[in-house]
Design goal:
binds NADP nicotinamide-adenine-dinucleotide phosphate, 12 helices, alpha/beta, Rossmann fold, 26% strand, seven-stranded mixed sheet
């Protein structure tokens, strides 16, 4: 029997104004799938890029945005070999390749993980995308380890706070870069980082502030830069990579348009001005540049359990929820996330 559900659906990417709250019927879960009664949905900056049609993985035509959610298993489809079994009533978190902005979901069980007993649904919904992003970028590609000096851009955001927590776990030393003095104050209260390692991005003094942060750690340069902003702050950080240093780029928040739709003229100008690297110079400087998109991991589904296990081994605290919204207020939530002033994770609460 089909189940009634409500989703946020966009008929065609291009503008956040096209998002519509829609009632639908969801068929029963198919083979290897689990039906989840959603209690919380995690919001991601990428959701906005997807609605604007600026995310390479955006589906053609209409779609429901959303990359993660958490809730309770309501029923299960016919089992399939290689798909972990779940029982009705289990609390689960889910990775979704779009479709997460929904009150009920059918999810391939390979993208699910049980929620730790002491975690709330909102903490669980805030976890998979940003923790996996930080783990993959910092520990897999970035090879951060004890003693590494690591620049983390947007350090007070969802991915950023996960990155700081992970670096603390492995004994690395973070330089936290943020867009405003208010976020520096937030990080001062929340972390044990030295003042010199809390840096406001941009402006004339940015390079000098990065040098002061490195000096505070007695480090000649960054072992790793973890950046999803790009823009004018790319070059000062890249030039401060130590030999063997790695620059891991996983987003381009600087390309976010200021209005509800794309603003092609500004985008074209930014695209023309995007940083370019000389691979020959990277040989002699002994530096690496890498990029990634988590969609890659979603598609390599056989690697998802290993990734969840690696995260569980880090035993991270539940993510910091900075902003909670009712499901019906998704538009306001996305507008606030888009404005770049939020700290921690934003979640939608269902029911
Ligand atoms: N590659 C992947 O697989 C992957 C996966 C997840 C997330 N991401 C990327 O990681 C970044 C962080 O994602 P998140 O969901 O955790 O978001 P978030 O960091 O909580 O929020 C986005 C942050 O971007 C910064 N920002 C820089 N320039 C901006 C601009 N022009 N407009 C608005 N904000 C701007 C702001 O912080 P500050 O001003 O403090 O810097 C803002 O708070 C995003 O760029 C996202 O696309 C990539």
């Amino acid at each position: 029997m089909n189940t009634a559900r409500t989703v946020w659906r966009i008929a065609r990417a291009g503008s956040l104004d096209r998002l519509q709250l829609t009632d639908e019927r969801l068929p029963p879960p198919g083979p290897g799938e689990v039906q989840v009664a959603v209690r919380a949905v995690g919001l991601n900056f990428a959701d906005i890029f997807a609605c604007l049609g600026l995310y390479s993985a955006t589906p053609a035509g209409g779609f429901v945005p959303g990359l993660e959610a958490a809730g309770v298993v309501s029923c299960v489809g016919p089992p399939l070999p290689g798909h972990p079994p779940y029982e009705p009533g289990e609390r689960v978190l889910a990775l979704t390749r779009f479709g997460g902005y929904a009150t009920v979901l059918n999810v391939d069980s390979r993208y699910l993980a049980p929620i730790p007993a002491e975690w709330s649904f909102e903490a669980a919904a805030a976890y998979p995308v940003q923790a996996l992003t930080a783990w993959y970028g910092l520990l897999r590609l970035g090879a951060a380890r004890a003693g590494s000096v690591v620049l983390v851009q947007s350090a007070a955001g969802g991915v950023g706070l996960q990155a700081l927590a992970m670096l603390e776990r492995v004994g690395a030393r973070a330089v936290a870069v943020v867009g405003s003095a208010a976020k520096v104050r937030f990080l001062r209260e929340r972390t044990a980082l030295p003042d010199a390692a809390l840096v406001v991005r941009g402006g004339d003094g940015y390079a000098r502030r990065l040098d002061a942060a490195l000096a505070a750690y007695g480090a000649p340069g960054f072992d790793l830069v973890f950046d999803a902003v790009l823009g004018d702050t790319f070059r000062p950080a890249f030039e401060r990579l130590a030999p063997e240093g790695r620059y891991v780029l996983y987003g381009a928040a600087d390309f976010m348009p200021s209005g509800a739709s794309r603003g092609w003229l500004r985008l074209a100008w930014q695209w023309l001005r995007r940083p370019r690297l000389d691979p020959l110079a990277m040989i002699s400087a002994n530096r690496a540049f890498m990029g990634f998109n988590l969609i890659w991991l979603w598609e390599a589904v056989e690697r998802v359990p290993e990734a969840y296990a690696a995260l569980a081994a880090l035993d991270l605290p539940p993510p910091h929820i900075g902003n909670r919204y009712a499901f019906k207020d998704a538009r306001r939530a996305l507008d606030e996330l888009k404005a770049g002033q939020t700290v921690g994770k934003s979640v939608l609460l269902v029911g």
